[in-house]
Amino acid sequence: MSNQTLDNKVYRPLPEGVSINLIPAGISARIIAYLIDFAIRAIIMIACGFALSAFGKSGEGILLLLYFISSWGYYIYFEAKYGQTYGKKKLNLRVIQDNGLPARLNQIILRNLLRPADAFPFGYALGIIVMAANKEFKRIGDWAAGTLVVYQESTIIHKAAPNTNIAITPPSFNLSTPEQQAILAFAERSHQLSPARQAELANILAKPLGVSGEEASLKLKEIANYYAGQTI
Amino acid sequence: MKQNQFVRLNNERWQWFEDLCQHQEQTFPSDFPQQYRRICGELAIARSRHYSPALVDKLNKLVQLGQACLYQNEGISFKQLIVQFKQTFPQALYENRYYIWAALIAFWGLAFIAFSWVIADPEAVYHFLDVASVRNLEEMYDPSGSVQSVARLADSDLLMFGVYIYNNIGIAFQMFAGGALFCIGALLPLLFNSFYFGAVSAHIVNVGYTDPFFSFVITHGSFELTAIIIAGAAGCKLGYKLLNPGKFSRAYALKKAGESVLPLIVGAFLMLVLAAFIEAFWSSRDMPSIIKYIVGSIGWFYVLQRLYKGSRYGT
Questions:
Q1: Between B296 and which of A168, B171, B219, B250 could a Cys-Cys bridge form, CB atoms 3.0 to 4.6 Å apart?
Q2: pLDDT tens digits along A136-146
Q3: Mean pLDDT across the stretch B216-239?
C-alpha cells in the first residue's frame, strides 16, 4: 500500500503502527488560496488607508504599522490559530507538520518568515519552481519548517456500497484483489456519477459479463454486493 | 470477515468517535487514546483485508481526526514569546555562535574599513552615495539646521515609529529569508549596510556634525545593529546548511537549521521593536547630548553583555 505511484497521496507512518495517507495541495490550489488572502489583505489595507488618512502623519505611521502586521502577521496568526488562512479554508487546505500532526507555532512562524525567499525574484517564482520539483509540493519555507499543505479531510461519508435493493450475484469468474476493489469502488462511487456515466463505464465490461449494455452497471453492483458480503 | 459485517459491528463507535473529535468542547473520555489506537488498528485491518477504498479512506480520515485531537497544538501565547526571548534566544546564540561571531566580525570589520577609507579620503563617500543623498544627510544632522533644533511633533514620532517598524524589521526578515538562498540574500544586505554605515559615520565626522549624529544613533543603534547582524547570521546558517549539509540530507539539514535559528529571528524581532520605540520616541527628543550618551552606553553595555553571555554560555 505504501508505494502507490499513480495517485498523489503521500504515506506517513504513525507511531500507532499504521500509516495514514495525506493529499498534498498542488500549485494551482495554493496560488488561488494565496490570491484570496492577498485580496483580503489588500481590501483591509485600502479600507484602513481611507480611514486613517484623516489623521495626518500619525495615521500614516499607524498605517505602516498595520501594513507590517498584515504582511507578516496575517498568515502566522491564522495558520497558528486555525491551521488555515481564509484563502486556504475556501480551498479546503490546511497546514500540517510533515508527520501529519497540526503544525506548531514555531513552524508556522518559520514557514511564513521565509516567504521572501520563495517570492524571489518576483511573484513567488522560485517558490513555484521548488514546489514543482517535489512530490509533496513544498516551497522553501515548508522545507525549512517541516510543514506540508494538504487537503483537509472533508466530512466523512461512507455509503455502504451494497444497496439492499440490489440482488447479490456471485460472479461467474475469479477476480484478483485489485479488480475486486475496482468493482467495489465503482459501486461505492456510483451515487456521485450520473446514470449515463455509470452506463458508459460499465459498458466497457458488458461483454465479459455476458450482459447487454444497459444491464452492465446493475450487474457490476450486484457483484460488488457479493464482494462486500451483504449476507453474513 | 466480510466488509459489511465489519462495518456493521463498528459503525456506531466510529460515528461516536467522529462526533467526539469534531465537537471538541465536550470533555474527552479518559479512554480516548485507547479508542484512537483501536481505530488505528481497524485501519490496518481494513487495509490488509483489502476492504473497499472508500472504507479505508473513511478510517484514514478518522485516524487523522483523532491524531489531531490527541496531539494538540500549543496555540499562540504572548508568554511563549517572552520565554523564547529570555531562555531560548540565548541558547540559540550559543548554538549558532560561530555564525554570530562571523557576522559580527564581517559587519564591524567592513564598517571599520569603510570608515577609515572615508576618513582618509573624504571624497570616497561619493563611491557609496550620490550627491543628493549626501546633501540630504548633511541637512539632517546639521547642528544649526531645522531638523534637529525644533523638537519633532508627537504625530511625526508615530509616523517614524511606523517607518522604523515596517522598514527595519522588514529588512531583517528579508535578510533572514534571503539567507536561505545560499547566503547571498543575507550577506549582500549585511555587507552593504556595514559599508554604508561606516562611510556615513566617517562623512559625518569629516564635516564635523558628530554630536547630533552620534547622540541620535547611539541609543537605538545597540539594539538595531546587533539585531540586524543576528538576523543576517540566522539567514546565513540556513543557506550554509543548504550548501554544506554535512552528514544529513539537504532537506533534513535545512529543517534542523530552521529549528535552531528560529529563536534568533524571534529575538532579533523583539530587539528591533524595542529599537524602533527608542528611535521614534527617545532618540529624537531634544535633551542634552550627555544624557543620550549615558543612556546609549548603558544600552550598548546591556546588549553586548547579553550577547557575550549568550554566545559564550548560552544564558
A1: B219
A2: 899 999 999 99
A3: 92
Distance CA(B54)–CA(B67), nearest Å, equals 20
- Chain B contact present for A135, CB below 8 A: no
Identify the pLDDT of residue A160. 54
ipTM: 0.86
Q: Which of residues 16-75 of A touch B (CB under 8 A)?
A: 16-18, 20-22, 55-58, 60-65, 67-68, 72
Chain A residues inside the 8 Å CB shell of B68: 101-102
Residue B149 above 60 pLDDT?
A: no
Q: Residue B308 and residue B301: Cα distance in Å, rounded?
A: 10
Give dist(CA A211, CA A226) in Å, integer.
18
Q: Given an 8 Å threshold on Cβ–Cβ distance, is A120 in contact with B169? A: no
Residue type, A26: G
| Distance (Å, whole) CA A137 – CA B162 | 36
At residue A19, what are phi and psi to the nearest 5 degrees?
-115, 145
Please give the grid coordinates belonging to residue B278.
527608542
Measure in Å the smallest separation between the Cα of B261 and chain A Cα atoms: 9
- The rounded distance, in Å, linking the Cα atoms of B269 and B84 is 12
Q: What is the pLDDT of residue B27?
A: 78
